[in-house]
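Sequence only, no structure available. Ideas?
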Amino acid sequence: MTHANLTVFHPAVFVLLGIPGLEAYHIWLSVPLCFMYITAVLGNSILIVVIITERNLHEPMYFLLSMLAVTDILLSTTTVPKALAIFWLHAHDIAFDACVTQVFFVHVIFVGESAILLAMAFDRFVAICSPLHYATVLTWPVVGRIGLAVVARSFCIIFPVIFLLKRLPFCRTNLIPHSYCEHIGVARLACADITINIWYGFSVPIVMVILDVILIAVSYSLILRAVFRLPSQDARHKALSTCGSHLCVILMFYVPSFFTLLTHRFGHNIPRHVHILLANLYVVVPPMLNPIVYGVKTKQIRERVAHRFFDIRVWCCASPLG
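Reply:
I predicted one. C-alpha coordinates follow.
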Protein backbone atom coordinates (compact mmCIF):
# COMPACT_ATOMS: atom_id res chain seq x y z
CA MET A 1 0.00 0.00 0.00
CA THR A 2 1.45 3.37 -0.96
CA HIS A 3 1.70 6.32 1.36
CA ALA A 4 -0.88 8.22 -0.70
CA ASN A 5 -3.47 5.49 -0.20
CA LEU A 6 -2.74 5.05 3.49
CA THR A 7 -5.17 6.88 5.76
CA VAL A 8 -3.31 7.72 8.98
CA PHE A 9 -5.16 9.09 11.99
CA HIS A 10 -5.01 9.40 15.72
CA PRO A 11 -8.50 8.31 16.74
CA ALA A 12 -10.53 10.68 18.89
CA VAL A 13 -11.74 7.68 20.86
CA PHE A 14 -10.92 4.04 21.33
CA VAL A 15 -13.64 1.46 21.90
CA LEU A 16 -13.04 -0.94 24.80
CA LEU A 17 -14.90 -4.18 24.13
CA GLY A 18 -14.79 -5.49 27.70
CA ILE A 19 -14.19 -9.23 27.72
CA PRO A 20 -14.74 -10.50 24.16
CA GLY A 21 -16.40 -13.91 24.14
CA LEU A 22 -18.05 -13.35 27.51
CA GLU A 23 -20.37 -10.48 26.59
CA ALA A 24 -23.40 -12.47 27.79
CA TYR A 25 -21.82 -12.76 31.24
CA HIS A 26 -20.71 -9.14 31.67
CA ILE A 27 -23.45 -8.39 34.19
CA TRP A 28 -22.67 -11.49 36.23
CA LEU A 29 -18.94 -10.82 36.17
CA SER A 30 -19.50 -7.23 37.25
CA VAL A 31 -21.05 -8.27 40.58
CA PRO A 32 -17.98 -9.94 42.13
CA LEU A 33 -15.73 -7.35 40.47
CA CYS A 34 -17.70 -4.52 42.07
CA PHE A 35 -17.71 -6.28 45.46
CA MET A 36 -13.95 -6.82 45.35
CA TYR A 37 -13.36 -3.22 44.29
CA ILE A 38 -15.44 -1.80 47.14
CA THR A 39 -13.71 -4.14 49.60
CA ALA A 40 -10.29 -3.07 48.29
CA VAL A 41 -11.05 0.65 48.55
CA LEU A 42 -12.65 0.39 51.99
CA GLY A 43 -10.00 -1.95 53.39
CA ASN A 44 -7.07 0.14 52.22
CA SER A 45 -8.77 3.39 53.26
CA ILE A 46 -9.32 2.04 56.77
CA LEU A 47 -5.68 0.96 56.86
CA ILE A 48 -4.50 4.44 55.85
CA VAL A 49 -6.77 6.19 58.37
CA VAL A 50 -5.63 3.93 61.22
CA ILE A 51 -1.95 4.45 60.39
CA ILE A 52 -2.38 8.25 60.17
CA THR A 53 -4.43 8.65 63.34
CA GLU A 54 -2.59 6.22 65.63
CA ARG A 55 0.68 7.68 66.92
CA ASN A 56 1.96 4.22 67.87
CA LEU A 57 1.95 3.33 64.17
CA HIS A 58 4.04 6.32 63.09
CA GLU A 59 7.00 4.15 62.15
CA PRO A 60 8.80 3.57 58.82
CA MET A 61 7.24 0.12 58.39
CA TYR A 62 3.70 1.52 58.59
CA PHE A 63 4.54 4.55 56.44
CA LEU A 64 5.61 2.16 53.67
CA LEU A 65 2.48 0.11 54.29
CA SER A 66 0.35 3.23 53.84
CA MET A 67 2.16 3.88 50.52
CA LEU A 68 1.28 0.33 49.47
CA ALA A 69 -2.37 0.95 50.41
CA VAL A 70 -2.45 4.16 48.35
CA THR A 71 -1.03 2.39 45.28
CA ASP A 72 -3.58 -0.42 45.70
CA ILE A 73 -6.45 2.10 45.71
CA LEU A 74 -5.02 3.86 42.66
CA LEU A 75 -4.46 0.61 40.76
CA SER A 76 -8.02 -0.65 41.19
CA THR A 77 -9.57 2.81 40.72
CA THR A 78 -7.65 3.39 37.50
CA THR A 79 -9.17 0.32 35.87
CA VAL A 80 -12.24 -1.10 37.62
CA PRO A 81 -14.73 1.83 37.35
CA LYS A 82 -14.28 1.95 33.58
CA ALA A 83 -14.73 -1.84 33.37
CA LEU A 84 -17.95 -1.56 35.41
CA ALA A 85 -19.16 1.26 33.16
CA ILE A 86 -18.64 -1.06 30.18
CA PHE A 87 -20.44 -3.96 31.85
CA TRP A 88 -23.38 -1.93 33.22
CA LEU A 89 -23.81 1.09 30.95
CA HIS A 90 -22.20 -0.13 27.72
CA ALA A 91 -19.89 2.92 27.94
CA HIS A 92 -17.27 1.46 25.63
CA ASP A 93 -15.77 4.72 24.35
CA ILE A 94 -12.61 6.16 25.88
CA ALA A 95 -10.82 9.24 24.58
CA PHE A 96 -7.35 8.73 23.09
CA ASP A 97 -5.67 10.90 25.74
CA ALA A 98 -7.66 9.22 28.52
CA CYS A 99 -6.55 5.83 27.20
CA VAL A 100 -2.88 6.91 27.18
CA THR A 101 -3.32 8.30 30.71
CA GLN A 102 -4.76 4.99 31.87
CA VAL A 103 -1.83 3.14 30.29
CA PHE A 104 0.58 5.44 32.12
CA PHE A 105 -1.00 5.02 35.56
CA VAL A 106 -1.48 1.24 35.29
CA HIS A 107 2.20 0.72 34.48
CA VAL A 108 3.52 3.36 36.90
CA ILE A 109 1.57 1.79 39.76
CA PHE A 110 2.81 -1.69 38.85
CA VAL A 111 6.47 -0.61 38.89
CA GLY A 112 5.90 1.57 41.95
CA GLU A 113 4.29 -1.20 43.99
CA SER A 114 7.23 -3.46 43.22
CA ALA A 115 9.61 -0.76 44.50
CA ILE A 116 7.52 -0.32 47.66
CA LEU A 117 7.73 -4.05 48.37
CA LEU A 118 11.51 -3.82 47.95
CA ALA A 119 11.63 -0.90 50.40
CA MET A 120 9.55 -2.90 52.88
CA ALA A 121 11.94 -5.83 52.54
CA PHE A 122 14.85 -3.47 53.30
CA ASP A 123 12.95 -2.20 56.35
CA ARG A 124 12.52 -5.76 57.67
CA PHE A 125 16.17 -6.54 56.89
CA VAL A 126 17.39 -3.63 59.01
CA ALA A 127 14.87 -4.34 61.79
CA ILE A 128 15.92 -8.00 62.15
CA CYS A 129 19.55 -8.10 61.07
CA SER A 130 20.60 -4.82 62.68
CA PRO A 131 17.94 -3.88 65.24
CA LEU A 132 20.25 -1.65 67.30
CA HIS A 133 20.88 0.57 64.28
CA TYR A 134 17.27 0.64 63.03
CA ALA A 135 16.47 4.09 64.40
CA THR A 136 19.68 5.58 63.01
CA VAL A 137 19.48 3.91 59.58
CA LEU A 138 15.78 4.41 58.82
CA THR A 139 15.32 7.98 59.97
CA TRP A 140 12.34 9.95 58.68
CA PRO A 141 14.47 11.92 56.19
CA VAL A 142 15.77 8.61 54.82
CA VAL A 143 12.26 7.16 54.62
CA GLY A 144 11.07 10.31 52.85
CA ARG A 145 13.87 9.99 50.30
CA ILE A 146 12.94 6.33 49.78
CA GLY A 147 9.34 7.37 49.06
CA LEU A 148 10.48 10.04 46.59
CA ALA A 149 12.82 7.54 44.93
CA VAL A 150 9.95 5.08 44.48
CA VAL A 151 7.81 7.73 42.77
CA ALA A 152 10.67 9.15 40.68
CA ARG A 153 11.87 5.74 39.48
CA SER A 154 8.40 4.63 38.46
CA PHE A 155 7.71 7.91 36.66
CA CYS A 156 11.03 7.92 34.77
CA ILE A 157 10.66 4.29 33.65
CA ILE A 158 7.10 4.61 32.34
CA PHE A 159 7.01 8.23 31.11
CA PRO A 160 8.63 7.33 27.72
CA VAL A 161 5.67 5.03 27.05
CA ILE A 162 3.49 8.12 26.49
CA PHE A 163 5.72 9.29 23.64
CA LEU A 164 6.06 5.76 22.26
CA LEU A 165 2.26 5.62 21.90
CA LYS A 166 1.70 9.19 20.71
CA ARG A 167 4.25 8.82 17.90
CA LEU A 168 2.29 5.92 16.37
CA PRO A 169 -0.13 6.39 13.45
CA PHE A 170 -3.39 4.48 13.73
CA CYS A 171 -5.08 3.46 10.49
CA ARG A 172 -6.63 0.05 11.11
CA THR A 173 -9.18 0.03 13.89
CA ASN A 174 -9.92 1.71 17.19
CA LEU A 175 -11.38 -1.42 18.80
CA ILE A 176 -9.46 -2.63 21.87
CA PRO A 177 -10.38 -6.19 22.93
CA HIS A 178 -9.95 -5.43 26.63
CA SER A 179 -11.73 -3.73 29.53
CA TYR A 180 -8.92 -1.18 30.06
CA CYS A 181 -6.05 0.28 28.05
CA GLU A 182 -2.59 -1.26 28.34
CA HIS A 183 0.53 -0.37 26.40
CA ILE A 184 1.07 -3.26 24.00
CA GLY A 185 -2.66 -3.75 23.45
CA VAL A 186 -2.97 -0.17 22.20
CA ALA A 187 0.30 -0.27 20.24
CA ARG A 188 -0.86 -3.32 18.29
CA LEU A 189 -3.61 -1.23 16.71
CA ALA A 190 -1.03 0.98 15.00
CA CYS A 191 -0.14 0.70 11.32
CA ALA A 192 3.58 1.17 11.95
CA ASP A 193 6.51 -0.77 13.28
CA ILE A 194 6.05 -1.24 17.05
CA THR A 195 9.31 -3.06 17.74
CA ILE A 196 10.49 -0.27 20.04
CA ASN A 197 7.21 -0.38 21.95
CA ILE A 198 7.48 -4.13 22.40
CA TRP A 199 11.09 -4.06 23.51
CA TYR A 200 10.73 -1.08 25.82
CA GLY A 201 7.25 -1.82 27.10
CA PHE A 202 8.01 -5.45 27.88
CA SER A 203 11.72 -5.44 28.70
CA VAL A 204 12.46 -2.29 30.72
CA PRO A 205 9.68 -2.52 33.37
CA ILE A 206 10.09 -6.29 33.66
CA VAL A 207 13.86 -6.04 34.07
CA MET A 208 13.37 -3.51 36.87
CA VAL A 209 10.75 -5.69 38.57
CA ILE A 210 12.97 -8.79 38.25
CA LEU A 211 15.80 -6.78 39.82
CA ASP A 212 13.44 -5.92 42.71
CA VAL A 213 12.57 -9.60 43.11
CA ILE A 214 16.26 -10.56 43.24
CA LEU A 215 17.01 -7.91 45.86
CA ILE A 216 13.96 -8.98 47.91
CA ALA A 217 15.15 -12.60 47.74
CA VAL A 218 18.63 -11.58 48.90
CA SER A 219 17.13 -9.56 51.76
CA TYR A 220 15.00 -12.44 52.97
CA SER A 221 17.83 -14.97 52.67
CA LEU A 222 19.86 -12.74 55.01
CA ILE A 223 16.83 -12.28 57.26
CA LEU A 224 16.24 -16.04 57.52
CA ARG A 225 19.91 -16.64 58.25
CA ALA A 226 19.78 -14.06 61.04
CA VAL A 227 16.50 -15.44 62.42
CA PHE A 228 17.73 -19.03 62.68
CA ARG A 229 20.80 -17.81 64.53
CA LEU A 230 18.66 -16.39 67.32
CA PRO A 231 19.08 -18.41 70.53
CA SER A 232 15.44 -18.31 71.65
CA GLN A 233 12.58 -20.02 69.84
CA ASP A 234 10.24 -17.24 70.96
CA ALA A 235 12.58 -14.66 69.45
CA ARG A 236 12.65 -16.60 66.18
CA HIS A 237 8.88 -16.86 66.13
CA LYS A 238 8.48 -13.13 66.82
CA ALA A 239 10.98 -12.21 64.10
CA LEU A 240 9.29 -14.47 61.55
CA SER A 241 5.82 -13.19 62.44
CA THR A 242 6.88 -9.62 61.63
CA CYS A 243 7.82 -10.80 58.13
CA GLY A 244 4.88 -13.13 57.55
CA SER A 245 2.41 -10.52 56.33
CA HIS A 246 5.00 -8.95 54.04
CA LEU A 247 5.87 -12.32 52.49
CA CYS A 248 2.18 -13.01 51.85
CA VAL A 249 1.77 -9.65 50.11
CA ILE A 250 4.92 -10.26 48.04
CA LEU A 251 3.57 -13.60 46.83
CA MET A 252 0.13 -12.13 46.06
CA PHE A 253 1.74 -9.39 43.97
CA TYR A 254 4.48 -11.22 42.06
CA VAL A 255 2.95 -14.67 41.46
CA PRO A 256 -0.20 -13.43 39.63
CA SER A 257 1.73 -10.68 37.80
CA PHE A 258 4.40 -13.02 36.44
CA PHE A 259 1.78 -15.66 35.65
CA THR A 260 -0.26 -13.07 33.73
CA LEU A 261 2.79 -11.78 31.88
CA LEU A 262 4.05 -15.24 30.95
CA THR A 263 0.66 -16.48 29.78
CA HIS A 264 0.19 -13.28 27.77
CA ARG A 265 3.63 -13.65 26.18
CA PHE A 266 3.79 -17.42 25.66
CA GLY A 267 0.29 -18.79 26.26
CA HIS A 268 -0.89 -18.43 22.67
CA ASN A 269 -3.22 -21.42 23.05
CA ILE A 270 -5.05 -19.81 25.98
CA PRO A 271 -8.30 -18.07 24.89
CA ARG A 272 -8.17 -14.27 24.86
CA HIS A 273 -11.03 -13.91 27.32
CA VAL A 274 -9.02 -15.88 29.90
CA HIS A 275 -6.12 -13.41 29.55
CA ILE A 276 -8.45 -10.45 30.00
CA LEU A 277 -10.27 -12.05 32.94
CA LEU A 278 -6.93 -12.70 34.68
CA ALA A 279 -5.86 -9.10 34.00
CA ASN A 280 -9.05 -7.82 35.63
CA LEU A 281 -8.59 -10.07 38.65
CA TYR A 282 -4.98 -8.98 39.02
CA VAL A 283 -5.87 -5.30 39.44
CA VAL A 284 -8.45 -5.98 42.15
CA VAL A 285 -7.67 -9.20 44.05
CA PRO A 286 -4.24 -8.26 45.56
CA PRO A 287 -5.51 -4.77 46.55
CA MET A 288 -8.49 -6.44 48.22
CA LEU A 289 -6.41 -9.02 50.09
CA ASN A 290 -3.46 -6.84 51.20
CA PRO A 291 -5.27 -4.96 54.01
CA ILE A 292 -6.92 -8.20 55.14
CA VAL A 293 -3.53 -9.92 55.37
CA TYR A 294 -1.98 -7.06 57.32
CA GLY A 295 -5.07 -6.77 59.53
CA VAL A 296 -4.92 -10.45 60.43
CA LYS A 297 -1.14 -10.87 60.62
CA THR A 298 -0.08 -7.59 62.27
CA LYS A 299 -1.10 -7.39 65.92
CA GLN A 300 -0.76 -3.61 66.21
CA ILE A 301 -3.06 -2.95 63.24
CA ARG A 302 -5.55 -5.60 64.32
CA GLU A 303 -5.80 -4.10 67.80
CA ARG A 304 -6.11 -0.52 66.54
CA VAL A 305 -8.84 -1.42 64.02
CA ALA A 306 -10.77 -3.36 66.68
CA HIS A 307 -10.39 -0.42 69.07
CA ARG A 308 -11.71 1.99 66.43
CA PHE A 309 -14.76 -0.16 65.71
CA PHE A 310 -15.39 -0.53 69.45
CA ASP A 311 -15.32 3.27 69.87
CA ILE A 312 -17.73 3.67 66.94
CA ARG A 313 -20.14 1.12 68.42
CA VAL A 314 -20.01 2.82 71.84
CA TRP A 315 -20.64 6.24 70.23
CA CYS A 316 -23.55 4.89 68.19
CA CYS A 317 -25.15 3.24 71.22
CA ALA A 318 -24.70 6.37 73.35
CA SER A 319 -26.04 8.81 70.74
CA PRO A 320 -29.73 9.86 70.90
CA LEU A 321 -30.36 8.24 67.53
CA GLY A 322 -28.73 4.96 68.57
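The beta strands are 13-16, 93-95, 175-176.
Hope that gets you unstuck.
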